[in-house]
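Sample intake sheet
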Amino acid sequence: MTDAMTVWTVGHSSHSYEHFLGLLKHENISAIADVRTSPYSRHLSHFNKDTLNQSLRADGVAYSFLGLELGGRPKEDQYFYEGIADYEKMARAPNFERGIERVLKGSQTYRIALMCSEHDPLDCHRCLLVARKLAEQNALVKHIYSDGRIACHNEIEERLLKLAGQEGNDLFLSRDEQLVIAYRRRARKVAYAEQSGTLPEPATAE
């Protein structure tokens, strides 16, 4: 697998811009794909779309906003199930598929990191929705943690199975079938909730 088919993900969390940039530079990231639906931070203005765009470009990192294509908060009712964003339906949306194609095409030129806000990939749609689809398209996905650690997507899936109590050998379900269940359960816990207009409190994932 070459870097042309590798995509990273990162959460800006509560980092300073300098720490965030350091995480990118350590992995030689040359482009950020911002997958936040609303690319603003109430308390961390350096992560607001325009400010971040200017800062990154000044530091040699390209920036592209893909929240319309790959964001985690759909506008259409058809992409909700019982008031919660349905990642499985969203992954089949034409606009989402175009966003995935843009990322894969861009990865042939840039070392791209998908950026959202949550620290833990398992609390974020960048992992449960976008990275899952990229992995299905044979991209190697690597998740950058706040301390610089890297976890490949298959490692994240093992954590996901464990959280869902699906890590054992099931007599009746294949690993792929267990993963479908685990992804669905996790998404129901952390996906955007239409009723409140906010994300539910993330479940403990450590």
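Comment: The CA atoms of residues 96 and 134 lie 11 Å apart. The longest strand covers residues 6-11.
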